[in-house]
Structures are given as structure tokens and as C-alpha cells.
Specification:
- The chain is of the alpha/beta class.
- It contains 15 helices and 19 strands.
- Helix 2 runs antiparallel to helix 15, helix 3 crosses helix 10 and helix 12 crosses helix 15.
Length: 507
């Protein structure tokens, strides 16, 4: 360690003076070494990417349970254990799947991809093809038993009224109600490249086993290269629709779709530990810390380590638990919940919210750690708290961040709707006020660096691994900040409330 780095580390580890003695002790107690050790272990080759329903995922769950036991947290899973079992359905589309139009054969992955819910090992659909444009006007079209070709995005003539009234989800529902046997979707040229879709849709899908519904028409994404193979005149119809002309029509061609998949039931685990509160009247209420520990596991022989997203978040959460278990007990209980299945749709968090191992109405607040590694860019001086604008937690966060000598930063990615995309939202839907926390350095280039990582870097890729360049003082600061926010809520006389006008309410 250089002298300059040692000086910076000492400065950020020293507890600020705007805190009570108990808070200063808790702030100083968060150990950088704990965060580094847990992150490195979870992202190691032995954990095989911690895939939901895979061996590496269960191995990671058992490791987290052992750390909770070591830190002195009590088990709060099933039957006196730390683990809450969840049953899933795993579905992987096989490259033997095919899409043919006359003599033309589209190649899986290069020309087409299968999305949506795959319910069986084999599905065959055959029928005529109808081009529906953006799906706005379906009058006069016979969709029954046919494959509907749908455009994503918007036409060049779209105005604010068009954007307000056209709901893509409602368009898809209308096509299904109309009897479409399958949907062939052509991605928005202004959106992600087809190769990006291929990176995700060729991975297996995972869903909760207890949410099985009636089979839905298959959804297929078709590349620009595949469009020319589907039907003569389709390219012309697409160009007309994108220019704003009415272009819905029957294409006069029959297409055969054969989906082949490996579908199996698997299981995974949430990991739950609790520290019982010290106030007999408030110990039945709890502050909930959460972080997902899963990544994409092993896909097609490739391991996805998921170091920044989100081994680091799980480590920060547990570092707070290590401190609380050795400090004087807060008045309310504190739950530490490491969830699986987040990458496939917040499945672990949704399962716990629907089958809580602590009464959900008695959960005072949720603090969620789920980031992209911005805390490791350097010493953290800024904190983002998604959800702070909706509840009393925003004021609590501002008080702690200010007292620790740092500042609250605005949402760096407003276009991404981050508040609705991580585990805390499953608890918000059950009425629990929540914050999702992210830390960043003073360097003004961090947002640009983070966006580059999201858009073309290692986000959800095999390269998301622990780096020698990481500054571990940043995660320590964010873990300590979240710890203090939770402590203030755990020791307050009343539970936090939603602010007037917030779109959420306690149930």
C-alpha cells in the first residue's frame, strides 16, 4: 500500500463527528476485510457463477448460511435453518430449434431467438404469416392460428399522443386475444443490437414453479438477416410501417416453427438470518436488509462470476450484520436476506414477500444492496438512494449521509427506471418502504464509466470478476452508511411511512 493510499483509507475509515457515540462505534466496526473476503469467495471459480437452481448456487447459499452463523445471526429460514427452499422451472432452448418459410431455413441464434415462457420440451407451430406493423390497427386482419409479425419501437411519424396511447404490453395482449399462434418480433433498430438479445435469450430461463399458467403463444425475435428469408415483400412492408404508412397485411406464406428445449424442475434457496431486537415492545417489528447473491451461473460451458453484480452487494450486507451482532441490540429486530433468482425476475425476493419467514406487515423498512461496482472506483463520497423520494427513509438517509461528511447524489440513470428493477421492489409492492443504495466517488466521470460498463462492458458478462484495481474502502463506506440508516430506523419510536402522494401504501 502506498503512503497516499494509506492516508486516504485512514480518512474514509475514521468515523465522522456528526454521529452519536454508538453510531460512531458501529460505523468504525464495519470491516473492509470482511467485504473483500466474502466478495472474493462468492465470485471464485468454486462457486461456478452461483446460478439459480445450479450446484454453484446451492454451494453459495450454504456458504452464506455459515457466515451468518459465524456472525451470531439466528436462523430465519425453513424449519429452524437459514435456508428457504424455492422450487423453480428451468428452461433452455436448444439449438436444434428451427424456423422455416417455404424452402428458406432460418438459423437459430443468427436469424431467430425464442423468448417468453417455454413450457415443454417440444412445441410445433405452423400457419400463415400476417404482418401487423406496430399492432395499432388490427381491424380486418384474421389472426386466428396465424403467426403475427410485430415491430418494436415507433414509426417516424409518432407524436406525443401516439407514445401516450400505444402500450406495447396491450398490443401483445390484443394479438393473443385475437388468436395469434405465435409472435414474430422484429427488434427496434434504435434499441439494442440483435447480438445483445442473443447473449441473453440463448441462456436458460428460470421461473417460479408456483406461478405456472396456461401455455402462451411462443415469442420469437427475428434478426434483420432473418427478415429477408421469411417472406417476399416483408422488407417493403416494414419500411412502410416505419415511415408511418399503414402496412398491415397477409404475407401469403406459411411458416413452421419448431421449438426444442430442456425443461426441468430445480430448486434454490434464499438465505435468512435475524438479530432479535432488544426492546420487548418493538422486537416483533424488523428492519430488512437484502441483497441477491445469484448470477448467471454456468451457461453453455461459460461461467458468469457476477462479482460486482452482486457478490459485492451480498458482502456489504453481511458486513453490516457482522457489526450489529456484536453491538448493543437495536430496539427492533434486523433481518438479513440473501436472495436467489434476481437475475431472472426478482424471483427470490418475490417468493419471500409472498411467503415471508417474518410477518411482512411487521417489516418496518427494506435496505437493498444491488450495484454495478461503482463503490470500487475510489473512496465513496456520494450515495444514491433510489426510493428516498417516496417515504420517510429519504430524510433518514440524508441525515446519515450528511452526518458522515458525504453527499446524496441524484439518480444517475433516470432512463433505466432502476427503482422497479431490483429486489426491494418486491417488498415495496407489499407496502414496505425501501431504499436501494449505491455509492460513488467524488470523481465526476463515474457516471460515464458506469454507463460504459452497462452498455458495452462486463455487465452480466463473464468478465464481471474481482479486479486488482478495486478500491475496497468504497464498499466499506457504503456498507457502513446503510448500517447507520437501518440503525436509526430500528431505534425510532415509529415505523417509517410513505409520503403523501407516493404511489405506494402499507397494506
Amino acid at each position: 500500500m502506498t503512503f497516499a493510499y494509506a492516508l486516504i483509507a485512514a480518512m474514509v475509515t475514521q468515523a465522522p463527528t456528526g454521529l452519536s457515540p454508538a453510531e460512531r462505534a458501529a460505523y468504525q466496526g464495519v470491516r473492509e476485510a470482511t467485504i473483500r473476503e466474502i466478495t472474493t469467495t462468492l465470485a471464485s471459480p468454486a462457486m461456478e457463477g452461483r446460478g439459480t437452481g445450479q450446484l454453484g448456487g446451492q454451494r453459495a447459499a450454504e456458504y452464506l448460511a455459515a457466515r451468518m452463523r459465524q456472525f451470531g445471526l439466528q436462523p430465519a429460514g425453513d424449519s429452524g435453518s437459514y435456508l428457504q427452499r424455492i422450487d423453480f422451472v428451468s428452461a433452455a432452448v436448444l439449438p436444434t430449434s428451427s424456423l422455416t418459410a417455404g424452402e428458406a431455413r432460418l438459423v437459430y441464434r443468427d436469424d431467430f431467438l425464442v423468448a417468453g415462457r417455454v413450457t415443454g420440451d417440444s412445441l410445433d407451430v405452423s400457419g400463415g404469416v400476417v404482418f401487423v406493423g406496430y399492432g395499432v390497427d388490427l381491424s380486418g386482419l384474421d389472426l386466428q392460428g396465424r403467426l403475427a409479425v410485430l415491430l418494436q419501437g415507433k414509426p417516424a411519424t409518432a407524436d406525443s399522443m401516439w407514445e401516450r396511447t400505444v402500450n406495447p404490453r396491450a398490443v401483445v395482449q390484443a394479438l393473443v386475444r385475437g388468436g395469434a399462434a405465435a409472435l414474430l418480433i422484429l427488434p427496434d433498430p434504435a434499441g439494442p443490437a440483435f447480438t445483445v438479445y442473443a447473449q441473453y435469450l440463448t441462456r436458460r430461463g428460470v421461473r417460479l414453479a408456483d406461478t405456472e399458467t396456461a401455455p402462451q403463444p411462443p415469442v420469437v425475435y427475428v434478426s434483420e438477416a432473418g427478415v429477408g428469408k421469411l417472406a417476399a415483400g416483408l422488407s417493403e412492408a416494414i419500411a412502410q410501417a416505419r415511415a408511418g404508412s399503414a402496412a398491415a397485411r397477409d404475407l401469403g406464406v406459411t411458416v413452421q416453427l419448431a421449438v426444442r428445449a430442456k425443461v426441468e424442475r430445480v430448486s434454490g434457496s434464499n438465505v435468512v438470518g435475524v438479530l432479535r431486537g432488544g426492546d420487548p415492545k418493538l422486537a416483533g417489528q424488523a428492519v430488512l436488509y437484502s441483497a441477491h447473491y445469484d448470477a448467471y451461473g454456468i451457461e453453455n460451458g461459460t461461467v458468469y462470476p457476477g462479482a460486482a453484480d452482486n457478490a459485492l452487494g451480498a458482502a456489504m450486507m453481511l458486513a453490516a450484520g457482522e457489526v450489529l451482532a456484536t453491538e448493543p441490540r437495536p430496539r427492533r429486530s434486523v433481518i438479513f436476506l440473501a436472495v436467489t433468482g434476481e437475475e431472472y425476475g426478482l424471483h427470490g425476493a418475490r417468493h419471500w414477500a409472498q411467503h415471508p419467514t417474518w410477518p411482512i406487515d411487521s417489516v418496518a423498512a427494506n435496505f437493498n444492496y444491488d450495484g454495478i461496482g461503482t463503490e470500487t472506483y475510489g473512496p465513496v463520497t456520494q450515495v444514491v438512494g433510489w426510493g428516498g423520494e417516496y417515504s420517510d427513509l429519504g430524510a433518514v438517509m440524508r441525515g446519515v449521509v450528511t452526518a458522515t461528511g458525504n453527499s446524496v447524489a441524484p439518480d444517475p440513470f433516470p432512463e433505466e427506471n432502476v427503482f422497479y428493477r431490483s429486489d426491494h421492489y418486491a417488498f415495496v409492492q407489499r407496502g414496505v418502504p425501501a431504499l436501494m443504495l449505491l455509492g460513488a466517488p467524488a470523481d465526476t466521470t463515474w457516471v460515464r464509466r458506469a454507463k460504459a460498463w452497462l452498455e458495452g462492458g462486463d455487465y452480466h458478462q463473464p468478465g464481471d470478476s474481482v479486479r486488482a484495481s478495486w478500491n475496497w474502502s468504497g464498499p466499506r463506506t457504503l456498507a457502513a452508511t446503510g448500517l447507520l440508516i437501518g440503525l436509526r430506523v430500528a431505534n425510532a419510536d415509529v415505523m417509517p411511512a410513505w409520503l403523501p402522494g407516493a404511489p405506494f401504501r402499507r397494506r
